[in-house]
Write a structure and sequence with these properties.
Length: about 1450
């Protein structure tokens, strides 16, 4: 027993001796250090002033300076004699880094170097610092501190933010940046150890450090770290045992710990030793320094740390041009050796440094490898003397918690790891490597040795305007200025510009593409093996870089246009000049044409603002004046001012109309009404194109419906209630939506809604919804006309809006043609709301038919898939177990990821990020396995093959993602407090074509539980076990194809297959009611659940299972949301459709839903015709107008219409009435004649007016000497009073016809009412020459009896034979001819016959054949309509004689029978 105790003690003593022998401080070393620190400088006699000697630069690998006598200088006092030399440039021959070697004078203390029995050996370890700084003290402040960057004493100043602090000069910044290693101090002004961590040694390898700020790292964020001796900073515990080679992340997490760390040289280390001959005599070990709040610091050290770090990162990493460090952490491992070594292995050391800089959003890391002498420790297989062989150290990053890791290849755990000290070339230093590590690991240093078929390329920015001009900084292979670099953007190639070994710049060319394209580079004759994905922004949605202060650019004749831009987007040289030019676009052939138009300003100082005066371009005469829209471009006039390179970045504006520039030219070409001419030209050309409206989805009727239709519509960038409420081209709208993906022919639907949430139509106003012939995303192939993204849309749809409507009146013919014919809004009469299903909580399902159930499966399952092969889609979900609660394991799961794919589309996956990785992004989105982000405005909407993915514009944390497939399918994923819900939206074409956990959409809940084989399971919704085993588990996915189920679509990382997540044997809680599965002692939890959830069983279940209030709250919220959405979409959509606005009028409201009453008004000068108000009925029809359809007529047209209507009424009423009367009389006469052939129509009494009118008609065209106002009436002769009967014994004389001058007011001379007619005057006859004939006075006939009638005697007119039947027999032709020659009448003289050529009254032969009376007297002209009631005795009357006819222009009748007109005498009665 004693022997055993002795043996144990001996072993213990041996182990203690071994530990002491390997500690970093031995007694001899302590004594040596004390001697050095307490040494007193030797006074030297004063000598004449000498110039300051210069430091020599030696090549580290080849030369080691001989040690000189050490002169110890108190850092607080200025030495009397200085023999150091000022450092020069630290680059030697052959590109090797040179270090300054300080030569000091001997002070007679050579024996100091032999105190520990050591002899000078080759330098190993630190590079540039002796024990106490012995460099040139040319920058010493008032306190005596030397600010040389190589000083090993910490500065005495404390952080300060006082105003008027230190300002660094360019020379000082250049001096700091020429130093390879950052500051690390082992002493301070007060005798302390400064940055040196003396608590870290072999027995305690790590030390906890509080950062007191947020450090983003690999998606997570930490406010602490642990500084490890083993070459890394960690944020969680490493595994207990490490196996080599190291593999991260740990696949068995959480069963095994998976540490989160940043590994600069992850290997087991111990503190080494240095030789007294080493130049840098700072203590070997670990150093740690934190500088906080640098943005506001004004003290010298804070300013220098900020500026040096900022410019090293900006120039060392692409994409860090605006980075300003807020906090900086400097960790240094100086002279550390490998664990397990023996003999002199402690002198085989490595020195490296890690510099972290963050602004609490972005984090950059600088790895400085000064000396690497060993590769691995003994446990990893390295030898015990040199640390060679085995598995070298791990270099890289691990996010922890089993998430993701990055290993820096080809160096990590490879024999070429020693090349870390001679590669990298960040900031021009070999051995410096820079990374960005906040979200993803992006390398900022070149990599020469790596080779593969597809190498990752680091470039920034990762997106640019389709028009080109974006300067892309590229890092990947190590570049050579003599070797050509070619950049390949999709189908275009450009040559790169060499910047340094670590960077090449390529300027993006003009691309006819959108979305993610291939981006590749080749070096020299190599193939394109360095690759990446570059995002092309459409011009209408690209990042806005030229801003317009007002909307004047959209007007056709503005006075001025003010533009601004960020001048630092051009160059940091603010003295540079820029050129502003104008470009235009047109499509006149198959190839699109983007052409230069004019220079707006040839050379202008880069001030960031400019005023365009359109009047300066009045006299331009461009050959491409047919371009109606275009862009402003700004570029450098002297590109060398941009980083000294012969390339220039280009800034483009958004598309703008060119009326402000082209208007004078268009006016000269088309006249004052040039907008109408442009519009008419467009209308003619557009009518030749196909009709695209039938391909578009119908607009929802209300804004609520539009927001809920996630599968077909997304917000319109031009009018978004969340991000852009200006709605320039849709005034009065509060929100617009457009179709998410182009239809088959490439068209795009647009639906805008007013403040009341109703659809705005172009039939109502020019600001209404306008479908587009071309989608903003264009259509493949993009290099053809009418298919170019944004440009074709502007050419076909935006351009005509300005020329037809915006620059004309709303009621203009062109605008109405544009609104009603070419781009009319589609109403929502036939709109069908989508079907909705969802999953939420732990988890609960609601099918398309509204069936709700709970299924706690563990693994990956089919949520919905199509059973129709022509329209296939798959939507899958991953469910993982909930974390433990206060009482232990939770037997329930939750949704953590969704994967989806259309027929031939890109596969999209949306994941829930780990708990501590949600500080910036809540969800991860992967497109075909590659992560994509939506944190920039131009990246909010991203289009892939057949699918569009976007996040709401007001969200920056990716907590809501919407996926839209070209088939109209939509998937919405929402995250709140770590709990995820998924909703699926399907159009009606998938009815009876779905299967999965969301059931068959058939409007019948009985077939929702359809199995993969097509059978329907009969289940009890309250029996969770039956649902789990008989239905839910049947839809579990594997990595291989299963008939009816399919294969998993999820991206596999780090070897985790579906079996990693799946567990078919997992037994969840099958009891639904919390009162049944909670123990009796947990009544408080039951009461709490009822208090939080009310009657929502899903919410109560979740709270009782997890005791998580957030989960319960969001479960209730998600359930209510999906129920409300289904209820809203299940309501029948009733709309009355379009009610056209009358031209030149307006509607007082634009509602078209049932119950809406729309009133009309007309513009000034117009009169409303028709109904003034219409009403939308409950059946979806507008009421029938009572007074006709509404119109607005000009007053003159209205008057004409009223007149025409009156005339029409007259014709339509009176004419039929007259026709009826005539028909009635005719029928009556025919009936009477049939009964009595001798029946005659009774004659009506004549009126005076008709007699006068007839007489006036007969004399209308008489001789010129007649007065038109005087009635000319023929005297009728009866049987008693005869004026022309032969006198006894006198020859028979034919007297001329006599016309009587009668006034209109005189009584009718032909009247037979008993009063004797009165003669009011006479008029002399005129000869053809115009002379008056002889006139005689009046003579009264003594034979006249006044009591007899003067009625016309029928026998006086007809000289023919009286037929026995009572009518006259016509004359024979011979008698008629004789009568014609002897014709004479008092009312028709021979003179009248001679002058009848101008008369319109002619007579038919029957009229001319009037016979003389039976007394042989004067022939009397027969009357056409005058009949007299008095009938001569013995004479039978006949019916009316043949009427007069008008025949203007016919020859006049033959001259009357008077042979001697000149001797005719007038007979006066």
């Amino acid at each position: 027993m004693r022997f055993k105790l002795f043996l144990v003690c001996a072993l213990a003593c041996g182990f203690m001796a071994y530990v002491l022998a390997n500690e970093n401080f031995s007694v001899e070393e302590v004594e040596f250090e004390d001697q050095i620190m307490n040494a007193v400088p030797v006074e030297q006699p004063k000598a004449p002033a000498k110039p300051k000697p210069q430091a020599e630069f030696v090549d580290v690998p080849k030369a080691t300076p001989d040690p000189k006598k050490v002169v110890v200088v108190n850092p607080t006092t200025k030495p009397s004699v200085l023999t150091t030399q000022k450092p020069a440039k630290n680059v030697g021959v052959g590109g090797q880094r040179m270090i300054p070697v300080v030569h000091v004078d001997s002070r007679g203390t050579d024996d100091v170097l032999t105190v520990a029995g050591l002899k000078p050996q080759a330098m190993s370890g630190a590079l540039i610092m002796p024990n106490d700084y012995l460099g040139e003290l040319y920058d010493v402040d008032n306190s005596g501190y030397n600010w040389d960057p190589n000083n090993n004493v910490a500065p005495p100043t404390s952080p300060s933010t006082a105003a008027g602090g230190y300002t660094i000069t360019a020379a000082r910044l250049a001096e700091l940046r020429q130093t390879f290693m950052y500051w690390y101090f082992d002493k301070d002004m007060f005798g302390g150890r400064a940055d040196y961590q003396f608590d870290i040694h072999a027995s305690m390898t790590q030390l906890h450090k509080n950062l007191n700020f947020q450090l983003p790292f690999y998606g997570f964020r930490f406010n602490y770290t642990r500084l490890s001796l083993n070459g890394y900073l960690e944020f969680s515990d490493p595994p207990e045992y490490l196996t080599y080679p190291l593999v991260f992340p740990i696949k068995d997490w959480p069963a095994k710990r998976d540490p989160s760390f940043m590994g600069i040289f992850f290997s087991k280390c111990r503190v080494g030793r240095i030789y007294p001959s080493d130049i840098d005599q700072r203590t070997p070990g670990v150093y740690f320094r934190v500088e906080r709040d640098l943005m506001g610091r004004t003290d010298r050290f804070g300013v220098e740390v900020r500026e040096r770090t900022m410019w090293d990162i900006r120039q060392g990493v692409v994409g860090a041009d605006t980075f300003i460090p807020k906090h900086v952490v400097i960790a240094t491992w100086k002279n550390v050796s490998f664990a397990g070594g023996i003999d002199n292995s402690l002198f085989t050391t490595n020195t490296f440094q890690m510099v972290l800089a963050t602004d609490e959003v972005y984090t950059y890391i600088i790895f400085n490898y000064a000396i690497l002498n060993w590769l691995s420790h003994t446990e990893a297989g390295g030898d015990t003397t040199q640390g060679a062989g085995g598995v070298p150290a791990f270099v890289g990053f691990n996010a922890g918690n089993g998430t993701q890791a990055y290993e820096y290849k080809p160096y990590s755990q490879n024999m070429v790891i020693r090349d870390l000290a001679i590669r990298g070339w960040a900031n021009g230093f070999p051995g410096r490597h820079i990374f960005r590590v906040d979200e993803q690991i992006l390398i900022g240093s070149c990599n020469k040795d790596i080779d593969a078929a597809l190498l990752p390329l680091t470039f920034a920015p990762e997106s640019g305007n389709m028009l080109g001009g974006q300067v892309v900084n590229i890092t990947g292979p190590c570049f050579d200025p003599n070797i050509r670099v070619t950049c390949h953007f999709d189908t275009e190639s450009v040559l790169g510009t060499y910047v340094d070994r670590n960077r090449v710049i390529c300027v993006q060319p003009y691309l006819k593409a959108e979305g993610y394209i291939r981006f590749q580079i080749s070096v020299g004759t190599q193939r394109f093996k360095w690759r990446g994905k570059y995002f092309v922004e459409t011009p209408a949605a690209a990042t806005e870089k030229i801003f317009f202060a007002t909307d004047d650019v959209h007007k056709k004749n503005p006075a001025e246009i003010r533009i601004t831009w960020d001048r630092y987007n051009m160059t940091s040289n603010l003295n540079a000049n820029v050129m502003i030019s104008l470009w235009g676009y047109r499509e006149t052939k198959i190839e699109p044409q983007l052409e230069y138009i004019d220079v707006i300003e040839a050379s202008y100082s880069n001030t960031g603002s400019y005023v365009i005066t359109p009047s300066n371009y009045l006299n331009r005469n461009n050959i491409n004046r047919d371009m109606q829209f275009g862009f402003l471009q700004i570029n450098l006039t002297q590109p060398e001012q941009y980083s000294g390179l012969s390339i220039s970045p280009i800034l483009w504006s958004r598309p703008i109309p060119l009326g402000w520039y082209m208007a004078p030219q268009w006016e000269r070409q088309h006249g004052k009404r040039w907008p109408r001419a442009l519009c008419d030209n467009w209308i003619r050309s557009d009518r030749f194109l196909r009709n695209f409206a039938a391909d578009l989805p119908l607009c929802p009727c209300t804004l609520d419906q539009a927001v809920l239709d996630k599968g077909r519509f997304r917000p319109d960038r031009e009018c978004d209630k969340d991000s852009n409420p200006s709605c320039l081209r849709h005034r009065g709208a509060i929100h617009c939506v457009v179709s998410g993906t182009p239809v088959a022919q490439g068209a795009e639907q647009q639906c805008c809604y007013d403040r009341y949430g109703f659809l705005m139509l172009t039939y109502d106003q020019m600001w209404g919804s306008r479908p587009r012939r071309v989608h903003n995303l264009g259509k493949m192939p993009w290099n053809e006309a009418s298919k170019v993204p944004s440009l074709s849309m502007w050419f076909h749809d935006m351009r005509p809006f300005y020329s037809c409507c915006y620059w004309q009146e709303e009621q203009a013919v062109g605008c109405e043609t544009y609104r009603f014919e070419r781009r009319p809004s589609q109403d929502c009469v036939a709109y069908q709301a989508p079907g909705i299903a969802g999953v939420f909580g732990d988890p609960h399902f609601v099918t398309f038919d509204g069936q709700a159930y709970t299924f706690n499966g563990l693994g990956e399952f089919v949520l919905a898939r199509s059973v129709d092969e022509s329209n296939r889609f798959e939507i899958q979900g991953r469910f993982q177990q909930l974390p433990n609660n206060y009482y232990g394991e939770v037997k329930a799961t939750q949704l953590t990821a969704m994967a989806m794919r259309g027929n031939t589309t890109t596969t999209i996956e949306v994941r829930l990020r780990p708990l501590h990785a949600r500080w910036r992004y809540r969800l991860d989105v992967l497109a075909d396995g590659r992560r994509v982000y939506f944190d920039r405005e131009s990246l909010k909407f991203q289009h892939f093959d057949g699918v569009t993915v976007y996040t709401p514009t007001y969200l920056l944390n990716q907590s809501q993602v919407v996926v839209q497939f070209d088939a109209g399918i939509g998937v919405e994923v929402v995250e709140n407090e770590g709990f995820m819900t998924g909703r699926v939206f399907l159009p009606w074409k998938f009815i009876n074509k779905t299967a999965g956990l969301f059931g068959n959409w058939s409007f019948n809940k009985l077939d929702d539980f359809m199995l993969p084989n097509g059978q329907v399971a009969t289940l009890n919704l309250n029996d969770l076990r039956s649902i789990h085993t008989n239905f839910g588990i049947k839809w579990m996915l594997t990595d291989r194809e299963v008939p009816g189920v399919g294969a998993a679509l999820f991206t596999r990382e780090f070897g985790r297959m579906s079996s990693y997540y799946a567990n078919a044997t997992f037994l969840p809680n099958y009891v639904l009611d919390p009162a049944d599965f909670l123990p009796a002692n947990r009544t408080y939890d039951l009461e709490r659940a009822e208090e939080l959830c009310g009657e929502c069983m899903q919410c109560q279940y979740d709270y009782a299972m997890t005791l998580n209030r957030d989960l319960a709250h969001f479960t209730k919220n998600y359930y209510d949301t999906i129920v409300n959405m289904q209820s809203e979409n299940s309501k029948p959509v009733i709309s009355c459709g379009v009610l056209q606005t009358p031209r030149f009028g307006r509607k007082l409201s634009f509602d078209f839903m049932p119950g809406a009453k729309v009133s009309f008004e007309c513009n000034e000068g117009f009169i409303l015709v028709g109904d003034q108000r219409r009403e939308c009925l409950a059946n979806g029809l507008w009421n029938v107008p009572e007074y006709g359809y509404t119109e607005c007529l000009r007053e003159v047209y209205y008057t004409r219409r009223v007149a025409f209507i009156a005339i029409g009424i007259i014709f339509l009423v009176i004419c039929p009435l007259m026709l009826c009367i005539v028909c009635g009389v005719y029928r009556y006469r025919q009936k009477q004649l049939k009964e009595d052939p001798q029946w005659q129509m009774p004659m009506l009494p004549r009126s005076r007016a008709s007699s006068a009118r007839n007489l006036r008609t007969l004399n209308y065209d008489d001789d010129s000497d007649t007065d038109a106002s005087t009635l000319k009436k023929s005297r009728s002769y009866d049987k008693v009073y005869r004026t022309n009967e032969p006198l006894p014994g006198k020859p028979q004389i034919d007297f001329p016809a006599k016309k009587w001058d009668l006034d209109e007011n005189d009584e009718d001379v032909t009247s037979s009412e008993g009063e004797k007619p009165k003669q009011s005057g006479r008029r002399s006859l005129r000869s053809p020459s115009g002379t008056e004939l002889d006139q005689q006075g009046e003579h009264d006939d003594p034979n006249h009896h006044p009591d007899e009638d003067d009625d016309f005697d029928e026998a006086d007119v007809h000289g023919g034979t009286i037929h026995p039947a009572g009518y006259h027999q016509p004359l024979s032709p011979e008698e008629a001819d004789q009568l014609h020659r002897q014709q004479y009448s008092p009312t028709f003289s021979g003179l009248d016959s001679r002058t009848s050529g101008a008369s319109s009254i002619n007579y038919t032969p029957q009229q001319q054949a009037a016979v003389q009376n039976r007394f042989g007297g004067v022939p009397v002209l027969p009357s056409n309509t005058q009949y007299f009631s008095g009938t001569p005795q013995g004479v039978a009357l006949r019916t009316a004689p043949t009427p007069l006819t008008q025949d203007s222009g016919l020859p006049s009748p033959p001259l009357a029978t008077s042979p001697t007109p000149s001797v005719q005498k007038s007979t006066e009665v």
